[in-house]
Design goal:
Largest sheet: none
Strand content: under 5%
Order of helices and strands: HHHH
Radius of gyration: 17 Å
CATH architecture of one domain: Up-down Bundle
Number of helices: 4
Shape: elongated
Low-confidence stretches: 155-166
Bound molecules: fe (ii) ion
Distance between the termini: 23 Å
CATH topology of one domain: Four Helix Bundle (Hemerythrin (Met), subunit A)
Number of strands: 0
Length: 166
């Protein structure tokens, strides 16, 4: 699935921690035992948890970008929103597999690969672009940035409720 590598680090502690947590949830999904009778309900529960955390991370990341006057925020936000819309379709596809146990493993692969592939590409290109801006490799904002949120800023305890998009 998605193993954390140092190349994914954007060197902004709060954001890196969120991304590591996303990788962790994806790993937990990969470890679910498909032989268990409650595999599919567990898979759905973890999928909801993954998406809820992702949405929460997006909001936090966007707020952070806004505080630093990131010029690419509008486009970045649109990418997050497109992913959220894609999750609705992903859930529909997974639910269509519910009644066929032979499709349950495929549902896990669909979820894992779809979210992993998107996150990897997004972190490496788009979140990295913000990190370059933040770290001063591109022009800094004209107003002084607010202090950086700490890596231990409040984060929702899991399990979370249903994501708002679902
Ligand atoms: Fe992002
Ligand atoms: Fe991110």
């Amino acid at each position: 699935m998605f193993a954390w590598k140092t190349e994914f680090a954007v060197n902004i502690p709060a954001i890196d921690r969120d991304h590591k947590n996303l990788v962790k949830i994806l790993s937990q999904i990969g470890l679910l035992d498909a032989a268990q009778p409650d595999f599919f309900p567990q898979l759905l529960e973890q999928a909801k948890r993954l998406i809820a955390y992702t949405v929460w991370h997006f909001e936090r990341e966007e707020a952070f970008m806004g505080r630093y006057g990131y010029t690419g925020l509008r486009d970045h936000k649109a990418m997050h929103e497109a992913f959220n819309r894609g999750c609705l379709q992903l859930f529909r596809e997974m639910m269509a597999m519910e009644n066929d146990p032979n499709q349950h493993q495929a549902a896990r692969i669909l979820l894992g690969e779809t979210v992993s592939d998107w996150l990897k590409a997004h972190i490496l290109v788009e979140d990295r672009a913000f990190a370059d801006f933040y770290h001063g490799k591109t022009p800094v904002p004209t107003h002084p940035p607010a202090s950086q949120p700490s890596a231990s800023a409040a984060m929702p305890d899991l399990p979370l409720g249903l994501p708002r998009i679902c």
